[in-house]
From TrEMBL, chain A:
The lineage of its organism: Bacteria, Pseudomonadati, Pseudomonadota, Alphaproteobacteria, Hyphomicrobiales. This is Cytochrome b561 bacterial/Ni-hydrogenase domain-containing protein. GO terms for molecular function: electron transfer activity; heme binding. It is found in: Cell membrane. GO terms for biological process: respiratory electron transport chain.
UniProtKB/TrEMBL annotation, chain B:
Pfam families: Oxidored_molyb (PF00174). InterPro entries: OxRdtase_Mopterin-bd_dom, OxRdtase_Mopterin-bd_sf, TAT_signal. CDD domains: bact_SO_family_Moco (cd02108). This is Molybdopterin-binding protein. SUPFAM superfamilies: Oxidoreductase molybdopterin-binding domain. Residues 93-236 form the Oxidoreductase molybdopterin-binding domain. Gene3D superfamilies: Oxidoreductase, molybdopterin-binding domain (3.90.420.10). Transmembrane segments: none annotated.
Amino acid sequence: MTEIQEAAPALASNSQRRVVYRHALLTRVTHWINLLCVIVLLMSGLQIFNAHPALYWGQYGADADRPLLEIGANETSSGQLTGFLKIGAATLPTTGVLGASDNADGDVVERGFPRWITLPGFRDLSLGRRWHFFFAWLFVANLLVYYVGGLASGHLRRDLLPSREQLRPKPLLHDIADHLRLRFPRGDAALRYNPLQKLAYLGVIGVLLPVMILTGLTMSPGMDAILPWLVDLFAGRQSARTIHFIAANLIVLFIFIHVAMVLLAGPINEIRSMITGKFAIVPEAKHE
Amino acid sequence: MSSFQIPRRRLLALGAASLGSALLGGCDRLSEAPDFQAFLASAESLTYRSQRLLGGGHSMAREFTAADLSPVFKVNGTRVPEGEDYAALVESNFADWRLRVDGLVVKPLELSLADLHALPQRTQITRHDCVEGWSAIGKWTGVPLAAVLERAALLPAARFVVFHCADMYEHALDGNGQYYESIDLIDAFHPQSILALSLNDAPLTVGHGAPLRLRVERQLGYKQAKYVMRIQLTDRLGDIGRGKGGFWPDRGYEWYAGI
């Protein structure tokens, strides 16, 4: 139990510190399986995206149609490749990262996303699809287990649904101010998720992840025949592909914020609680 | 408690480390291992069986209106099949072209373009989805595949319909570079599975697969074989090409391309 003292050396001497069982086994197991799935899906998804690095809106979209977003490369008169990212009318130079980047031999080649972020690293659409669809099945199964378990145990309602009190403007503003000052709850208050945290988790679990699955299914011609409303829900297959990409970016944004919060709130205690379930409560220094 | 925790901690550290190294490069080696590829590919049969269970023979691909047509329908894959044989067919406007239907059928057929035009026709405005990610909407007219298969009359052992094409897509060392594709009988007898003779009210151009291409509307673009020369009914795919049921399936892509 030495990590607890490492986690909060200044306050440990009060010996008011308690260890509580915070995360149920189901939450912990599904969290880490989900992390594995999301990373594989993001990286293999970029491999698939690289096969046609342009996004459209509507039912159709191909070379002759105007994209919303496009990643590509131009060749300069001296034969050098320069990468670009085009969003609407704006064009950004992105050589080295987007459009043109190194291959395994160190030569600059035309490539949507760079090899260090795609799965596999070398260009292979068929393998990217193999990875993507295998882990998509695992991801969906894992999420279903989490939903069913979370509803049955009351975890979703008890831990994630914000209370009416939490959603009132004053506590919300207070919570936003606390986040901006990087002040984190101590003592028993740390046991409950704060409103922004609840909204972020619910937004990912209840909105972004289902949107990823549904837009993914909308790209499947077989599923479009089985569930025609999917195509209408997302205003076309190419719109669904665009939404799939945007939602994936929002998930990446969430991961960055989530990891930053874990690091700021006490990474050892937080990560251990998601592995063993045990979370150390550090008493509040003083009441506000 | 601590005697229990240490090995577990070590295990977790090991797990985290192996995950990290796997993600930082090991994945490429994993991707290249045939056993691992086969493991990942197991998801394909899950997808196939799920979509068959949910949609089976009945679910229809969306049919659009003329207002939804793509201004330009992209030509992809082979643009012009190589070789004098195909060039001669184009030269004669496919007058001597014949579609052979053989294999596990009661009555093998040889059909000219005129024969195909004399059969019932179906027109459908559908979305073509390339495995690369783009889509195009086109208006296809042609003979329902079922009408041709009914005339040939399948033997009970027939399980797959194989489409042999005129285009050599790759000069492969093992001689298996000829384009071909195959579908199961559920897709073969689906009302929207047609042997298309025209795109957007004009006879198929060479780029789009003249004189005949397959449309299997609930699957991806690489299943829509162009330049169809011969339709073979078979009970197995293992002895055709490299044995995976199609040019792209032989090269790692899913045989069932409903996703």
